[in-house]
Amino acid sequence: MTDVLIVGAGPTGLTLACDLARRGIAVRVVDKSPEYPRSSRAKGPNPRSLEVLEDLGVVGAVLAAGSATLPMRKYRDGLPVADADPYAGSSPTPDAPYDRGRLIAQWRLEEILRDRLAESGTAVETGTEVVGLTDRDTTVAVAFADGSGTDARYVVGCDGAHSRVRKLLGVTFDGETEAEQQMVCGDVEITPGVLDRDVWHQWFDEDGAVMLCPIPGTRTGWWYQSGPERDAEGRALAPSLEGFRRLFARHTRLPAGHLTGAALLSTYRVNVRMADRYRVGRVLLAGDAAHVHAIAGGLGMNTGIQDAFNLGWKLAQVLRGRAGDELLDTYEEERLPVAAWTLDLTSERLRATLEAIRKPGGGLDTAVTPSTTGLDRGYRWSSLARPGGHGGVQSGDRAPDAPCADAGTGAPTRLFRVLAGPHITVLGFGPGTEPTLREAAAAHGDTVRTVRVYDAGDAPEAPLPGALHDWDGHARTAYGVAGDTVVVIRPDNHVGLISDADGHGAALRYLDVLDGAREADRMWGAGMVDGTGKG
């Protein structure tokens, strides 16, 4: 029997598997596809997903395999009319090291995550289709299409918009499909030298469009998107190599033969749908199995990655007996509103983009906003967010980064390096926080990392082990801290609690909720979560 069976080996399932495996959870990943997909599909991780991938230890490989986001060149009637860089003027800041996403083919990102998962001794099982789920109180019995089966303590459906897991659960997938809003897509080969590979080309004409984005790591590979060809009655035709060539020639005014090959052709229809529940007993949903939306803004894969990062630590805490089963209810509580917001944002950005491309110079840059970075998504409404906060950072928000120094060696480091890994972090600003740090370390061991953060004026000659020097005040500024303050940061790098030194007991009680099953059960049972859902 496995602890967690993950159904679906896309970025969502693989992120969850990597997170669980590093926490010592026995995980099994199955996918009905007979072989690993090679489609480029999603354009790449946004800034928040890059932070998740850094925590998982793979961001270096992602940065090396991908490329920077590209400026967009817009054409009308075959002629270039405007270039636009939606990230022009942006740059990394002390609290946010990634100001833009990374362009990488989805198959390559999946390959990097599979390699990371393999380091724990786990491989994806392809050609393995789930056809039945039976709840047995303490386990789920899983039936496969080949007649075999297994038991798992939990099952997570990461198996896409047509999720078999969701259908087996009877979970509704409410929303709408815009049948007429269609696009044909595929990986294509273009004759070398015909198009500049340093830009994302977008031909928008009154009678249709073609978009070509170079695929990093290839010499002639491009990701192709366009409106579909239509027959005499106006019905959309299925994608084909010859159809792609005709559309390419019509809009680019280049010879059709320069599009030398096409593979993995598909039709995309705008679907805006969301599951009404993310959990049914011991079975949960994540990624496209739980929500689908317009492609504007590139949030599909990213929302799934961030679902997985929210869920992984919670499953691990419950499975290890460090938290009550109620902790899993906070997954839906936190992520379902994010999905609803994403559906609204992407639908609005799609409308804005369709309006923009009616005029020469309009393009996909219209879909990019500060919110599509993912950096402003938090859970202030969550029952895990204790009231309080300083400055702009509140409980439930994404935990900001900050450059600092190792207090023992003086070596430069960052808060994100301290937060990375399968632990809760407690930051102590000011000498009055040291009793809380000592008691937290004694009570929770290696599941909690306690870090004294010294200011330029209070650094002793013999600092506490693992302490940091905040010489330039970036950490205090990022968290809006004044005086003695304790900050508890969850394993998914969201702020759980910000408390002054007088809140010593509150910080320790909160840690018991996140890490300590018997105490957590008592706290939830005592109504520590109030009727507002804010704790």
Automatic annotation (TrEMBL):
Which segments constitute the FAD-binding domain? 2-344
From which residue to which does the signal peptide run?
none
Q: Which domain of life is it from?
A: Bacteria
**Database matches in InterPro entries:** FAD-bd, FAD/NAD-bd_sf, RIFMO-like, Thioredoxin-like_sf
What cofactor does its activity depend on? Answer: FAD
**Which GO molecular function, any one, fits this protein according to its record?**
monooxygenase activity
Q: Which UniProt keywords are present, listed alphabetically?
A: FAD, Flavoprotein, Monooxygenase, Oxidoreductase
Instruction: Family membership, please give it.
Output: Belongs to the PheA/TfdB FAD monooxygenase family.
Please report the name of this protein according to its UniProt entry. Answer: FAD-dependent monooxygenase
Q: Which organism is it from?
A: [Kitasatospora] papulosa
